[in-house]
Amino acid sequence: MNNNKKISSVFTYSYFWIAIIIPVSLSSLLMSFIFINDGLSIEWPSKETLSVFLEYMNVPLWILGSALPLATLATANFRALQFQSNLNYQERTIERQEFEHKIDLYHKELTLFKEKFSAVIFNGNFKFIRPEDATIIFTRFYPKPTKKEDPYFEIDIEKIEYIYEFMKLFEAKVFELGKIANTKRNKLKFINLLFPDFSEEQKIEQENSINIYSLKIIYLLGVMDATLLQVCHAIGIRHFSIQKEPITLIIKLIIDIYALQTSFLDDGESKYSFYFSQKRQSALVDILNLWIKYSSISNVKADEYTADDFRHECFITEVLRSQPR
């Protein structure tokens, strides 16, 4: 029986008519058989004829009489279905109202977030994450409820951890490259790392001409470019590629990502094991600024030095395209 089917009246309820039609049809059929087989005839009602009728038609009349209690049962079942249907409707209405209330709360939190986010962007001196990015960032970090049971304001910890893993990876790469001192021997090792296909003559030529800090920066951003693209997509912000954008803009974007992840974790290390402290961020920024200061980037306007300038400096083309990702 389909409880979800809407039935407006008991007279449109199929089981009600089944409860009536089957006994009536069966009793009528038996009456016809008895009437024909026993050779009965139609006569005016009298005590004798009624007695004969009751004697012969006892079973058909009993079957006919069962239509009333069966129809009563069908009516009771119909009322029970109506009652259950009303309860289900009320339950669905309450659930829908609760869900709509949760959506309203979600949008209120979004409004508050946008107000707070503007202040965070301004006070945090963000360069490339803008106040107008607040809505998409909020929806990425605080998923919108899709059903009543979903929380309306709960940060996506997996996404925070995902960004934290990127931050740790970038930090580890910086420290790894930072261990390469500015000596000819280490410079050659670094050129071997960056340009394994160069001939010995080319490597020596680059060893004498190229800036090791430029090498470090270009290599770092080259191997991190694909991962940075994924992180920017996960956050909902614009990606700056080393293939197209100035080097310092990419570094500023990465610093913005560090600051953004930290701003989501107000309780800091006391609550989250993946909190990237301000001390760690400052140390990382100091290293990057030092590299920029002593690299070839400092010879041009800071926000104009690109990978093409590096290629021209090294007298090579498509060097970044060949680097591992």
Brief summary of the model shown:
The chain has 325 residues and is mainly alpha-helical.
Bulk shape: rod-shaped
Give the low-pLDDT segments: 316-325
Percentage of helical residues? Answer: 55-70%
* Order of secondary-structure elements: HHHHHHHHHHHH
Structural descriptors:
single chain; 325 residues; 12 helices; disordered C terminus
Structure characterization notes:
The chain is mainly alpha-helical. It folds into two domains: 10-97, no CATH class; 157-322, no CATH class. It is 66% helix and 0% strand. It has twelve helices and no strands. The chain has helices spanning 14-37, 47-56, 58-65, 67-123, 134-141, 157-178, 184-194, 200-209, 212-235, 247-263, 278-294, 307-314. Helix 6 packs antiparallel against helix 9 (212-235) and helix 7 packs across helix 9. The longest helix is centred in the N-terminal third of the chain and has 57 residues, at 67-123. It is rod-shaped and about 135 Å long.
